[in-house]
Write a structure and sequence with these properties.
- The protein has helices at 14-25, 41-46, 48-65, 81-105, 164-167, 184-195, 215-227, 282-285, 321-335, 364-369, 385-389, 418-430, 435-439, 450-459; strands spanning 3-10, 30-34, 109-112, 114-119, 122-126, 132-142, 146-148, 161-162, 176-180, 199-204, 231-234, 236-244, 247-254, 259-264, 266-269, 273-275, 308-310, 349-351, 356-361, 374-380, 396-402, 408-415.
- The chain is an alpha/beta fold and 466 residues long.
- The chain has three domains: 3-148 and 274-342, 3-Layer(bba) Sandwich (FAD/NAD(P)-binding domain); 161-271, FAD/NAD(P)-binding domain; 346-459, FAD/NAD-linked reductase, C-terminal dimerisation domain (Enolase-like, domain 1, 2-Layer Sandwich).
- The strands form five sheets. Strands 1, 2, 3, 4, 5, 6 and 17 form a seven-stranded mixed sheet that branches. The chain has a five-stranded parallel sheet with strand order 8-15-9-10-11. Strands 18-19-22-21-20 form a five-stranded antiparallel sheet, with helices on both faces.
Length: 466
């Protein structure tokens, strides 16, 4: 007998499992299908969580090695990479088991296997033993995430030529690592291995890192990373990668046509991600894709097949776990007859290097392109008491506000705890706040958050401490 549900979610990542839980909370009999064998998707298993664990541990290692100039003398500091990796894996296991508990708690039926469409209301699930189960549903939600994009003609072996997945599992520190691509993931992973002792070289096709980010922040970020010992080779195109007995050779051409070779132990290719729709059998039910192979949806996340929905990395928009989570809630609420909504103007982006980089809303470049007149407020962490007290002073806060109304249009931070500080500005923007609203809000002293207040004061040229 085919089991029937009111909603089936294909994919157990941040968007999928959140959507399934919210559907169940709203009273729908819900199933969630995940092919990986553990819930949490790329983010929890091979992305956000393990990378943040390694970023934190590598930063702790770096700090301890450099404590003597602050009056704390530690001798014979050694790296035990095996234990570090076990600590990372433990964090992943605890969290994935936690998600499984949440599905159970909310009475979501969890299927381990690969789901594909047999018809617009039927999903065929094939488990690791090739056993097949057919389930039916009134509504089906696609939340299968994304996968790394390889360079043309170059395949990942996850040992010498690695994606972010392989970069999280190296069993020894490379003497030299080449990172192809100067985006979020490449710079985070490059930072980890640089702090652990690798000679890291970033090869980027553009003339700047972190494409799409506010240019002033991007430039400052690159200056800081250079000081930390990461090497940058801008406007270099990778022509080929050849493996050899000691690792690989990356062959590049610069903007002037000069050829350059990089010998290395490991190459991390980090040039983007693409929607993971392979094997879903979408063509069987006629679900339409756009030119970038993303699933087309309307404002309610419906595909051209009205009972099939899609969210997260398989549709347009930033490939971020928190964006997928918000969409998961919105889809569930729309299906239940409520008014699910995502404000794409207030989705933050964070790079978890040291210092952290965070961004929300419009950049200066976007405002100029849209002919929107704006004011700028900036405040350096160099003048922040808390940052000064702990000698963590690199970076600044920058707030962009409408020239006439003073409404906050965007904010860009580089500095300590930027990923946490951005939340205050996100809340302010959700409420349509002005920079003056932030400036008139009392902030505790001494805290890093005072830099946000001072930047807001600076919009009106009345910062107190600079």
């Amino acid at each position: 007998m085919t089991e029937k549900f009111q909603a089936i979610v294909i994919g157990g990542g941040p968007g999928g499992y959140v959507c399934a839980i919210r559907l169940a909370q709203l009273g729908l009999k819900t199933a969630c299908i995940e092919s990986r064998g553990s819930l949490g998707g790329t983010c929890l298993n091979i992305g956000c969580i393990p990378s943040k664990s390694l970023l934190n541990l590598s930063e702790e290692f770096h700090k301890i090695k450099n404590l003597s100039n602050k009056g704390i003398e530690v001798e014979n500091v050694k790296l035990n990479l095996g234990k570090m990796m076990k600590s990372k894996d433990k964090a992943v296991t605890v969290l994935t088991k936690g998600v499984e508990f949440l599905l159970k708690k909310n009475k979501v039926t969890y299927f381990k296997g690969t789901g594909s469409f047999k018809s617009k209301n039927e999903i065929l699930i094939k488990d690791e033993n090739n056993k097949e189960i057919l389930i039916q549903s009134e509504k089906i939600i696609i939340a299968t995430g994304s996968v790394p994009v390889p360079l043309p003609g170059i395949e990942f072996d996850e040992k010498t030529i690695v994606s972010s997945t392989g970069a999280l599992k190296l069993n020894e520190v490379p003497k030299k690592m080449v990172v192809v691509g100067g985006g979020y993931i490449g710079l985070e992973m490059g930072s980890v291995w640089s702090r652990l002792g690798a000679d890291v070289h970033v090869v980027e096709f553009l003339d700047h890192i972190t494409p799409g980010m506010d240019k002033e922040i991007s430039n400052e970020f690159m200056k800081i990373l250079k000081k930390q010992g990461i090497n940058f080779h801008m406007q270099h195109k990778v022509e080929n990668i050849k493996k050899n007995s000691s690792g690989a050779i990356v062959l590049t051409t610069d903007k002037d046509g000069n050829k350059k070779e990089f010998d290395c132990d490991v190459v991390l290719i980090s040039v983007g991600r693409k929607p993971n729709t392979k094997g879903l059998n979408l063509e069987n039910v006629g679900v339409e894709l756009d030119k970038k192979s993303r699933i087309k949806t309307n404002k309610n996340f419906q595909t051209n097949i009205n009972n099939i929905y899609a969210l997260g990395d398989v549709i347009a928009g930033p490939m971020l776990a928190h964006k997928a989570e918000d969409e998961g809630v919105a889809v569930a609420e729309n299906i239940a007859g409520q008014s699910g909504h995502v404000n794409y103007d207030t989705i933050p982006g964070v790079i978890y290097t040291t210092p952290e980089v965070a961004s929300i809303g419009k950049t200066e470049e976007q405002l100029n392109n849209q002919n929107i007149k704006y004011k700028i407020g900036k405040f350096s962490f160099m003048a922040n008491s808390r940052a000064k007290a702990i000698d963590d002073v690199e970076g600044f806060v920058k707030i962009l506000a409408d020239e006439k109304s003073d409404k906050v249009l965007g904010a860009h931070l580089i500095g300590p705890h930027a990923g946490e500080l951005i939340a205050e500005i996100g809340i302010a923007m959700e409420f349509g706040a002005s920079s003056e609203d932030i400036a008139r809000t009392c902030h505790a002293h001494p805290t890093f958050s005072e830099a946000v207040k001072e930047a807001a004061l600076s919009v009106d040229k009345r910062a107190i401490h600079s």
